[in-house]
Amino acid sequence: MGTAFILILVATRAGLPISSSNAIVGGFLGAGVGASGISAIILPPSDTVVQVFTFGAAGAVAGAIVLSFIAFTLQGELRLAAAIGAICGGAVIVPILMFLGILKLSGILAIVLFIFISPIVGMLSAFLLDILVSHLFRYSRQNLMTRIFQPLHVLACLAQAISHGGNDRQNAVGG
Fold first, then answer.
1. CB neighbours (10 Å) of residue 168?
2. Residue 79's domain spans which residues?
3. Mean pLDDT, to the nearest integer, of 1-9?
4. How far apart are CA 36 and CA 76, in angstroms?
5. Is 101 left (phi over 0), alpha (psi -120 to 50) or beta?
6. Which of 40, 44, 60, 157 is least enclosed, having the fewest CB within 10 Å?
7. Using one digit for the tens of pLDDT, what is the confidence trace for 80-112?
8. Is residue 95 part of a domain?
């Protein structure tokens, strides 16, 4: 934990971007390895890793095909659609399979995997919500839209500020 504290302190003082959560996870991981040895890390079985990559690749191919088809019908950029579809398909399939009970992840693999998956799923969810709201309110007057969404925007900003402040409270010690 001391190493995580020093890393956060030095990087913050130097003005370097750092993720405090990742530093803390690394500190806990290092403390566990220091106290109990490498056996403290729960490494996944090799068949689980193969399953994750197989399902991820299948989701990427499916996402690329679906989004490429949509781009083709709308006469859009096919390569960009295939790339975005592959990224989103590969990221979305793992949580879906975990929810259905087909894929069981635990330990360090789940942590590392969701560090990469969660931002993609968040951006995809925000994009789909934006499309839904735009479609539902496309014929509404600007006055009504401002009255409805301004208080909701303030509440969303408040929730984000509280979450951001709670997650990055470690940066306060660095300056």
1. 14
2. 44-116
3. 70
4. 55
5. left
6. 157
7. 999 999 999 999 999 999 899 898 888 778 888
8. yes
User: What tens digit of pLDDT does each residue of 136-160 get?
Assistant: 888 888 888 889 889 999 999 999 8
Q: Is residue 35 part of a domain?
A: no
Query: What does the DSSP assignment read for the chain?
Result: -HHHHHHHHHHHHHT----HHHHHHHHHHHHHHHHH-GGGS-PPPHHHHHHHHHHHHHHHHHHHHHHHHHHHHTT--HHHHHHHHHHHHHHHHHHHHHHHTSS---HHHHHHHHHHHHHHHHHHHHHHHHHHHHHHTTTS-HHHHHHHHHHHHHHHHHHHHHHHHHHTGGGGGG-
139 Cβ contact partners less than 8 Å away, ≥ 6 residues apart: none
Could you tell me if 88 and 114 are in contact, meaning their C-beta atoms sit under 8 angstroms apart? no
Q: Supply the pTM of this predicted model.
A: 0.65
Quote the tokens at residue 128.
Answer: 């789909």
Residue 10 falls inside a structural domain: no
Tokens standing for residue 57: 């690749």
As for how many domains the chain has, the answer is 1
Give the model's pLDDT for residue 87.
92
